[in-house]
Amino acid sequence: MKKKTVAFFLCAAMAFASLSACSSPASSQSGVGFDSLQNENDIPEDDTSFKLSYTLTDSLDPFEAQTLNNQILAQLVFDGLFELDGSFKASAKTAESYRYSDKTELEVTLKKGIFFSNGKPLTADDVVYSFKKAADSAYWGNSLIGIASCSKEDENTVVFHLRYHNSYAHNLLIFPIVSSEGYENGYPVGSGRYRFDDDNGSTVLRVVKGNGFYPHLTTIRLENVISYESIDNAVNIGNISFAFRDLGSGSSMKLNCESKLVNMNNLVYLGVNGKEGVTANADIRKAISLAIDREELVKGPYNEYAYVAESVFNPKFELATAKIFSANADLIAAQQTVAKSPFSSPSLSLIVNAENTDRVNCAKMIKSQLEEAGFKVKLTEVSSYEKYTERIENENFDLYLGETRISPDMSLRSFLSSGGSTSYGIDFKSCEAAKQYKNYSDGQTDLGEFLLAFSEEMPYIPLLYRNGMICYSSDMKGDMQGTFTDCFANIEDWYFAS
Questions:
Q1: CB 134 within 8 A of CB 176
Q2: Residue 43 pLDDT more than 90?
Q3: What's the mean per-residue pLDDT of the chain?
Q4: What is the pLDDT of residue 437?
């Protein structure tokens, strides 16, 4: 079977594609809005207090970096054409404007007066170079598969050639832009708020002041902290000042530091075998969805570090206007829907990767909920990720509990196109939802037609979206804000208490 591996299911795919869009000096906010009576002029510049973790043995190049540690640093050093807010709405960053010249061409005009930290102007050549690097990279490549190529129109204009019609393709243009002229002093060069620099043999981040960006934290010290658990401990005891936690596993861990949740686009869902067995029946699939209490999954296994999927799209996104999944279980409706099927007491197999604690606990709760509705469920905790993915690729399941990062354009093609990375079990010969999604994507029908087809067929079952978390020292002040694509959204307001 020629299908992509489901490695994208795990949060290690971090994917997304969406990580490195940050505020540039040209467009950063200059407001203060401190939560104390301390006057801005009383806060001195600070080049020692703020510390971040990084991985010394990993690359600082955003297209070569393998660790979340160094990818997070990239948010401070590199800008994208666009950035996303907490509702996944795009706004221009180094781009001035954009337009869809036809269904498969997206033209972007660059802002004038954007410079790299070495003083050289950011041009269309740099964007084309960066796109090619991003598309070929393990970290960014999956989110950019809908863009065939990028070409230079003139010094300030680039054209992205799309593989298919996509009215949200500009949401994908959050990949970091690096200088096409290569490294300087051994470091990759960006146009972001900070730049990499050497400080007596140690790598630090130095502020790039100007155009309204004048932070109190002028130098950021980097501490070599490698493992996920060590980073948690380093924040707790104050060895580093700030960290982003993906919360992909072990999200119940107690933290001694301050923290805030950020919205992510990681969907936890039930994959369904619609080709054979009891789950080939649409009424059974609908009954499964009705029997699941999504709110309890959020409160229990995910410790409220998630939010309910009430729509096919992320509920924070503007397309999620129609709620077609209930947050709470409806056992009576589930039983009535089962009664419409040929099965009086349906038996189901459910598989989950045993290596992910949160998802195992989630699968156990789903089993309990389904049994309360009258299903018989055999839960198998597959011992390794490799064996788990093998079973999915062979479609040896009725249900599997999976996770995937939806790309920033909110495309559902990974599920609803043949050969998609999360399309296992979907019968494309008869799936009306897949046909209607293609028609909707091509502009041939409205969103309602697709949503109706999806709710009638339930080719897969969305459950919840996970949150991420920013954690920071209690000594830090300034109402720390952040998004998944820019954990340091208002870093210019941050400072340490005297």
A1: yes
A2: no
A3: 90
A4: 97
